[in-house]
Specification:
Layout lengths: L14 H12 E5 L3 E2 L5 E3 L3 E5 L8 E2 L4 H12 L5 H16 L8 H8 L15 H4 L16 E4 L2 E5 L6 E3 L5 E8 L5 E9 L2 E8 H4 L2 H8 L11 H14 L5 E6 L2 E3 L6 E2 L7 E2 L7 H6 L6 H8 L6 H12 L11 E6 L6 H9 L13 E2 L4 H9 L1 E9 L7 H10 L19 E8 L12 H4 E4 L9 H14 L6 H14 L3 H15 L5 H22 L13 H5 L8 H15 L4 E2 L14 E3 L4 E3 L1 H10 L4 H10 L14 E6 L2 E7 L2 H4 L5
Helix pairs in contact: 1-2, 1-3, 7-8, 11-12, 11-19, 18-19, 21-23
């Protein structure tokens, strides 16, 4: 900058400078808020404006509007009009001055316009930002969806526009919408919520009561990525209520199943998720088993796998048990158990897998197979998932408590779980054919005399005893059903539904079952009680052949009795266990202590002594021998007491463990009455 030389007069100001000075005396200079995008970036700068100093903050003018005003003041002060060029230069300087001003805080309208990504849009769009969502190919919203006031949809979530003009409040941190309502058989409602999580949509069915409580909603779905934090939970619950109310007509209502199988309408049969109804199980730990019920491969490929089972009638029995389960409801039969037991490596589990493969993935890597290594509530929940499908419970030898098998066998035909309070599963329903396997027969765990009428026991080796050939056949079937499954059951039920829909269909089905029941009734009370259950399997075998679900004919009626029937004596578990005690005593006579004994104790110890009433045996010895033979002592003791086989003392607990002395050592004994063991009471 050059300095004026001393004594030289100052250069006069230009007209443009004089105009700028006039403007500075009259106005203050400002600019509106910048328009920003969803990530905070400046999309466009705010526009310049002025406020007259004498009029206060309530009066604003566009910058261009002051051009004639400052020109008039200039002419009044200087006696001539300012040149057009000077006026233009002055306005350029004033524009720069306004742009350098701090931008105003955004108004509510400007904030919303920014949220919607519409620079300078001004008014809120008529659809309140809905187009941002509906323009996407994967939009989950139904036709006719609207956004209710005072909400707007922005790229970063849902916002509430404040009526007092102070801006907006965040409701969610991503898109969140109610999209469907589901109604379960009890009339309870679940709301399907859909939200955006990064590049994908997530949906969950949430109980109606939870959607009405923002904090509970965060607890329920927060781990699934629900875009709501607890501080804004109340606003989110209000948004969901408003959105659902505004879209009452657009949001569809659908039935939802709580169980696989027959539904309350008596016509619908659900075989898997969305087949044909959505399934929302009552308990979260049922999700794995539900996921296993799906098809893989084709019916033809599955038929090719099981086509070689013709000679293996016992394996086909597992198959028929799987297909017979849908018949329980139309035939008005209670649930029952078919138990495959015997030595290991004979194909018991594979037989169960064949039955399960009609409906689900039968491999051990899936949750379709269930294990006896569980608790009673675990079994009840697994059964509760189905109403007309089979449930496989594998390997009794891993059961943690013999009483569990006893309780389950007793409970299965009741079609519901035990009564409980305190929020525990209470009398939860089911209808199923349970396929049980194990080296030890399931009935050996129970003391109930009628257990054999509720359990069809099969002890024949499923694949025979032909060594390498049997193993090869078993492994071939296992490999085949683990890659081809979930097609036969749906095909069977489709034909069953069609048959039941015909005129007189249910009556015709029941008549066929009654005729088979009479054919299979046999000559004993026990076979008569089993006959309806065996007839159910036989009917399934006939229908599967008629409907070409399986590639072979059903077994002849004469073949069924050989698989299941047995003498009433075999069904009397306590009497059979008593026979084992008789044999044990006969083969261990040298291990019975007596006062006249001079020999040393046997290597395995004394088993007891001869008391006045009869043999007094140490409980642990009896328990071990019974277990070796496939029985549980605690399961048969009630039967022994009922038949009067044991000496009891009412002043002792339990009364059947009586204090006696063997080899000088006082301990509790099972004292068997001599006349019962010898059969003299018969």
């Amino acid at each position: 900058m050059t300095q004026e030389k001393p004594g030289k007069p100052a250069r006069p100001k230009s007209a443009a400078s004089l105009l700028v000075g006039i403007a500075n005396e009259l106005y203050t200079f400002h600019r509106t808020a910048d328009t920003r995008g969803p990530d905070g970036e400046v999309i466009s700068e705010g526009s310049a404006y002025v406020r007259p100093k004498q009029a206060g903050d309530n009066v604003t003018l566009q910058l261009e509007d002051i051009r004639p005003n400052i020109a008039a003041v200039y002419e009044a002060e200087h006696g001539h009009a300012a040149a057009v060029a000077a006026l233009g230069n002055a306005m350029t300087v004033l524009l720069g001055k306004a742009r350098q001003a701090r931008p105003d805080a955004p108004t509510a309208k400007e904030q919303v316009a920014g949220l919607l990504g519409a620079p300078g849009a001004g008014p809120i769009p008529a659809d309140r930002g809905l187009a941002i969502v509906t323009s996407r190919d994967d939009c989950p919203l139904p036709e006719g969806y609207v956004i209710p006031e005072p909400y707007v949809v922005a790229p970063d979530g849902i916002h509430l526009v404040k009526h007092d003009g102070t801006g907006h409040a965040r409701v969610t941190w991503a898109w969140l919408f109610p999209v469907r309502v589901y109604i379960d058989p009890a009339g309870d409602q679940l709301v399907e919520l859909a939200w955006r999580d990064g590049r994908r949509w997530v949906s969950r069915l949430i109980r109606r009561a939870i959607t009405k409580s923002g904090r509970k909603l965060v607890t329920e779905a927060g781990d699934a990525g629900l875009p709501v934090i607890e501080a804004e939970a109340r606003q989110a619950e209000r948004w969901l209520a408003a959105a659902e109310a505004a879209n009452h007509e657009a949001i569809a209502r659908h039935p939802v199943a709580r169980q696989l199988g027959w539904q309350a309408d008596g016509r619908t049969f659900v075989t898997g998720q969305d087949s044909p109804w959505r399934v929302e199980p009552s308990y979260s730990d049922q999700a794995g088993a539900l996921a296993a019920h799906r098809p893989q491969g084709t019916l033809a490929s599955w038929q090719q796998v099981i086509g070689d089972l013709g000679p293996y009638v016992v394996v086909r029995l597992g198959l028929y048990a799987g297909l017979a389960a849908p018949l329980l409801v139309p035939l008005e039969l209670d649930s029952f158990t078919i138990d495959f037991s015997g030595k290991s490596t004979r194909g018991k589990t594979i037989t169960a897998q064949v039955g399960l493969s009609c409906w689900a993935d039968p491999s051990e890597r899936s949750d379709g197979l269930f294990s006896w290594k569980t608790k009673i509530i675990g079994v009840e929940k697994r059964l509760n998932l189905v109403c007309g499908l089979p449930v496989v419970v594998d390997e009794t030898r891993v059961v943690t408590s013999p009483e569990l098998v006893d309780s389950v066998i007793y409970q299965i035909p009741k079609n519901h779980g035990q009564a409980r309070g305190g929020g525990w599963p209470n009398m939860i329903p089911w209808r199923a054919i349970v396929i049980s396997t194990g080296e030890q027969a399931a009935t050996s765990f129970t003391s109930h005399q009628g257990a054999s009428a509720r359990v069809l026991s099969v002890q024949s080796p499923p694949f025979g005893t032909e060594g390498a050939d049997s193993r090869a056949a078993a492994e071939s079937v296992r490999t085949g059903v683990e890659t081809n499954y979930g097609t036969a059951g749906p095909a069977f039920t489709a034909r069953l539904q069609a048959a039941l829909a015909e005129a007189g269909g249910p009556e015709k089905l029941r008549t066929r079952h009654e005729e088979l029941t009479e054919l299979l009734r046999g000559g004993t009370d026990m076979t008569g009680r089993r006959a309806p259950l065996v007839a159910c399997l036989a009917l399934a075998a006939q229908l599967a052949a008629e409907w070409q679900i399986v590639p072979y004919q059903a077994p002849d009626a004469s073949e069924w009795p050989a698989l299941f029937t047995s003498a009433d004596q075999r069904d009397n578990r306590p009497e059979m266990a008593l026979d084992i005690v008789r044999e044990y005593l006969a083969s261990h006579d040298d291990s019975m202590w007596s006062p006249m004994t001079t020999e040393r104790s046997p290597a395995t110890g004394w088993i007891g002594h001869e008391a006045a009433e009869g043999p007094a045996l140490l409980p642990e010895k009896v328990r071990a021998e019974l277990r070796r033979c496939g029985y549980e002592m605690e399961a048969v003791v009630p039967g022994w007491l009922e038949m009067g086989a044991l000496v009891t003392k009412e002043n002792q607990r339990p009364p059947y463990l009586v204090n006696r002395s063997t080899a000088g050592r006082q301990s509790r004994h099972l004292v068997f009455k001599r006349e019962v063991l010898s059969g003299q009471d018969e």
